[in-house]
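Minutes, project huddle
Topic: does the predicted pose make sense with adenosine-5'-triphosphate bound?
PN asked that the exact inputs be recorded in the minutes so nobody has to dig through chat later. Recorded below.
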Amino acid sequence: MEPLLLVKNVEKAYGKGTNTFNALENISFEIDHGEFVGVMGPSGAGKSTLLNILATIDTPTSGDILIGPDNIAKMDEEKLADFRRDHLGFIFQDYNLLDSLTVRENILLPLAIAKKKPAVIKERVEEIAATFGISNLLDKYPYQISGGQKQRTAASRALISKPKIIFADEPTGALDSKSATDLLESMSALNEKHEATIMMVTHDAYAASFCRRILFIRDGRLSKEILRGRKTRKEFFQMILDELSQVGGETNDVI
Ligand SMILES: Nc1ncnc2c1ncn2[C@@H]1O[C@H](COP(=O)(O)OP(=O)(O)OP(=O)(O)O)[C@@H](O)[C@H]1O
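Predicted holo structure (tokens), as shared on screen:
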């Protein structure tokens, strides 16, 4: 089977001439449909640069990025905008909710833009809100709900149009541990029950332990990958901590 995401020899250089800095060098990997992959590494390793390139927010200096049959590294801006809207989902640390819209309206926005039928929209909103445990908040505004509830609203919006892949950048970064756990459990459930494909950049070993595979980046290069396999989440957490103590990166002893 073809991988869902194929990253081949991706390089990213910032600056010009003697001031060139290679933020990413020779990055190649694949993600299959239904995987939940974490990306970890020390500060400045290139995690956000990689995620921004995959999310089409930034462009690589060279290399290919195939999502299904489409090479997004070679797409023009107009096609990319359509591709982003139709096939990609995003969850960022700072939620990016629209304050003047209710939770329901925020969640349904991608489907409204795609001109889906109201009955289809209603059914999808209710289904996804139930998955993220926010069904009772649909008529509230962002200022009336907590940070964790905002992030679950943002995750619902990212997933409502059933994107091919979801890119999450430190989604638990601003959350307390209970809210982070709620979000990560909902993301895991979506991954396991609905085969959502997720790639998540995180500093946090606890958040990473919800993934099935972790890619480690160091100095702009992929340094290692580890698989959860049949390990429990706690065993995988310990394995990630051991790895971080070798490759560098922040640790967090919450289990
Ligand atoms: N626009 C830019 N111009 C020049 N250098 C940049 C630019 N953006 C990032 N860099 C450099 O590229 C390297 C990788 O940055 P990046 O933000 O991807 O790291 P990161 O692993 O996400 O770090 P953190 O965990 O601290 O967010 C860093 O050395 C950074 O200073």
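Observations noted during the meeting:
- The CA atoms of residues 213 and 227 lie 4 Å apart.
- The chain has a mean pLDDT of 90.
No decisions taken; revisit at the next huddle.
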